[in-house]
Structures are given as C-alpha cells and as structure tokens.
C-alpha cells in the first residue's frame, strides 16, 4: 500500500484537516459494535421508496437516458419543483432562472455557501442544529455564530436575533434556519416567521431555510416558508430524502432570487457537473405524484411520535413538543446530571439503546438526547422498555 511522501504530509493538508469528523457519525460507529443494540441515532427513514417512484427511474434507464443533463437540473424536474413550491407554499420560482438541482441537500448547502461567502463572513445558526452546518460554513471560509434557542422552547425569537446581531453576530452576512427543526422537531408559526423576516430585512441579511422536513408536520399544522414573507432575501434548501424515503438517491434542490441562483448554479456545476438522470426523473415523479406517499408517511411517523413522546414523559424526560420531522429532543432526568455524552454512552452500553447526545447539535443541547423515531413501532416499544429499566436501575 502506498504511503504519502514525507515531504507532502504537511503541505497536502488544507482546511479540511482542521475540521473534526462528524461526532454523530463517530458515536453511531462506536455504539454499532454493541450486540443487539437498537440504534435510534441517524435520521434515516425505515420506509421504502414508493414503487411508482422506483418505476420511473427504471423506465428512464430503459429509455437509455445516459447523457449529461443540464447542469442546473433536468427541465422536467425543475418544472416539478416549481409547481410543488407553488402548490405547497404559494411561492413562485422560475424553473429556468431560480431553481437548481444538486447532489442531496448537503451538496446543495455546500454550493450555496461556496457561492455567497467570503473569508471570515459570519453565518448565524440557531441552535441546537444539525452538526454539519457548522463545518460546511467553515469549509466555505465562513464563521458560524451559534444562537442558543433553548430558553425559548427551541424557537428563534426576533428579540434574540437582534441581541445576537448587536453582539457576537454583528456584521453577519447570512442566517441559516431549519424548519421543521433537526434535532428538536419544532416548527415556526407564521407570526414568528414574520417577526424574524422583519429583522432579517432591517439588518440586510440573506436567509437560507432548510425545509427538508416540510412534508413531515403533524397535528394538522401546516408548513410556512420564510420565502412567503421575504422572497427577495430567502433561499430555500430542500430535497426528496426525508418525505419520500429517498436518502440514498441523493437529490436536493435550491430555489431563490435569480442573482443568487446564477452564482449557485455555477458553483454547483463545478462541484457535481450534473445529477444522475434517473434520480432526477424519479424525483420529479415524487414531487408530481407523491401526495399520497407523504400523507402515509405522516400518519406512520405521527403514531410513532406520540408513542415515544408519552413513553419518555412517563420516565421523567422533559421536552418541547415536536411538531415536525421525526425526532424527539428530550432532557433526561436531573439526577443523571448534564453530561449528555456520558449518559448516551452508558445508555448504549447498559440498556443497548442508541440515542444521540444533544451537545453534538451545538449550544443549548447539553443535558439532552435526540431520539429518531424513524424506526418500527416494535423497535420503539422495545427501546422504551429498555430505557425504563435503565432509568429505574440507576
């Protein structure tokens, strides 16, 4: 096996060498060695991609659709995205100039920040938040500024945003908001979005909203986008992974003002050239004809959420009610202290249940754990039995 030349060991290491690996992935790998463990750690739907979506991909392959697609995405898919956003959010995006297709929402997010950030630019991130946000911003040369929302039921308020902009976040270029939230499952109301939108406009920020979980909202709630209030300042980031159980297909998309999208399309083409053709056709089928699929998924996840929420509450966990996504973000009983990493490892080793430490999601997460209920009812019920035994024995 070749070993890197000694004279290259330092010079070949750029910015990525200074960034830590994903703590969530490392934790998941660590506990995967435990026999018979129930892992409720990763946001991976256990449902299958609907058959009509798979058939669309197969048909496209059989039609020999094997050449490069448009670097901004196939027209069929961009049209489907435009129609979907109009129907679901009542926001208008031109499929020719304001929409771009990328390799997963992660690829899309990299393209966005590489397009807009100069070295040292600040990006505000309400926390707890998905851990890769911080590293993606750093990789693009930016500086993430965390805004702890734990004292406001994990919802960013206009007052807290102003306080940050007048303090640590002074001079920030952009803000990244996840709605519904990973890891908390919290959802922003129209009133909250309107108040935040005013602050964003007053302080001349660009906003990016990660709306990947928009279809997974419960209790007859409805998703609202910041683009409904400040379309001239907001960029929507989304994809088909979560709502249609297509995480492995790797299809994300971006929608925003044409001036921003011109840059995003350019960078996206540098990174990926284009997205796999049959994946794009399958995604267009999902967005055009997948309404029954998302309703079915919501019903399934909603029942699981209620089961886990009630079960953890009975064991003394405290949580702000998750209205969307498929996560429970819960504070474990006070007698266990606040070291969530220690709690999670002990739970994995002694109870054989894997829950992600809350501090891995940034400020406001200490003393919490995240549970992904994208698993079967049977697995969740067994996990609750094991957690109960652990709590009672410690």
UniProtKB/TrEMBL annotation:
- In what residue span(s) does the Aminotransferase class I/classII large domain sit? 36-387
Provide this UniProt record's keywords sorted from A to Z.
Answer: Aminotransferase, Pyridoxal phosphate, Transferase
Report the Pfam families cross-referenced here: Aminotran_1_2
State which Enzyme Commission number(s) the record gives: 2.6.1.-
Q: Which domain of life is it from?
A: Bacteria
Show the InterPro entries listed in the entry.
Answer: Aminotransferase_I/II_large (IPR004839), AspAT/PAT-like (IPR050596), NHTrfase_class1_PyrdxlP-BS (IPR004838), PyrdxlP-dep_Trfase (IPR015424), PyrdxlP-dep_Trfase_major (IPR015421), PyrdxlP-dep_Trfase_small (IPR015422)
Extract one GO BP annotation from the record: amino acid metabolic process
Return one GO MF term: transaminase activity
Cofactor dependence is on:
pyridoxal 5'-phosphate
The broad enzyme category this protein falls into is transferase
What protein family is recorded? Belongs to the class-I pyridoxal-phosphate-dependent aminotransferase family.
Provide the protein name: Aminotransferase
